[in-house]
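Researcher: I'm preparing a figure for a lab meeting and need a structural model of a single chain. I don't have an experimental structure, so a prediction will have to do for now. The sequence is pasted below. Please return the structure as C-alpha cells so I can convert it later.
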Amino acid sequence: MLSIAKAQSAPLSEFPQHFLSVADLSREQVLEVFALAAELKQKAAPLLAGKQAALLFEKPSLRTRVSFEAGLSRLGGHAIYLDHQAQRLGAREAVKDYAKNLERWVDVLVARVFSHKTLAELAAHSRIPVVNALSDQEHPCQALADFFTLAEQGLDLGSLKLAYVGDGNNVCQSLVLLAAIFGCQMTVVTPWGYEPDADLMLKAGDIAKASGAVIKLGHDTAMLAGHDAVYTDTWASMGQESEHDDRVRLFSALQVNEKLMQGQGLKYFMHCLPAHRGEEVTDAVIDGPGSLVYEQAENRMHVQNALLALLLG
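Model: Understood. Here is the structure written out cell by cell.
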C-alpha cells in the first residue's frame, strides 16, 4: 500500500495547463497525482475514454513510449506515435505549426525532445496540454514515478533522505526539484564540473526555503552515508556518446557497487534505466534485493496515467 495520505481533492482548474517541469506542480497536486495513481494501479478505470495523445519523440525509448501507449490504452485512450528521430521537430515544419495543427486533432501532446526550448515553444502555441516526456533540462514524469515508488516502500516523503551519485543531468535535476517540494533531504554527488544546472539549483533552493528541504551538493561518496536510497544514471546520456570514454574515467570512483551500498548503509538502489551494467552500477546491486528499478519502470505508467487524467480533467 502507498504510505502517503490522500490529498484533499483540489479543483481541476488548479492544475497547470502544461507539465514541463516538476516545479509546475505544488506538493498537494503531486500528492493528488500519487493518490490517483495508487487507485489506478489497483484497478484501471476508463478515465481517458475517447482521448487522443500525440507522442512526439526525437529520442529512442522503451519505457517512456510503452508506458504512455499502454497506459492510454489501459484507461480507454489512444496514442499516436510520431517518430522524429531522423528529423527533429521544427526541421520540416515550424514547431508552432506542429502545435497549431495537432491541437485540432488530439487532446494532449507528449514530447520527448533534445532541447527544452522545443517544449516551451510547443506549449506557447498549444491550447491543449503539453507533457514533458524528457528534455535536456528535466525528466519530470520519471521523478514523479521515483518518489511514488519510494512512498510504496513505506518511506515518509517528508523525511526521506535520497542520494544521487553521478552526472547532474536532467533526471537529477527533476529529483532535486521534487525533493525541494516535499521538504526532504537530498544529496547530490558528482565529479567536479558535472554538477546540476546552477539556475535550477537556485530555483530548488528557493522552494526549499519554504518547504524546509535540505539540498546538499558535493563530490565525495562519504556524503551518502545514512541515506534511505541511492540513485544513479548512465554516465554518458544520448547525444553524449563521443564523451563516453572520458566520462568513464572521470566517473569510475562513483560506481554504485556492493562496497558502497554496505559501507554507506544504503538500503535501496534506483536507476531510471537503461543501465550500463558494469559502469555506473554492478550486476550485484541492480539485481540485488534492494533494487527498485523495475518498480520504478512499472510506476511510470500509473503515475503518467494519473497525471494525464488530472491534466485533462
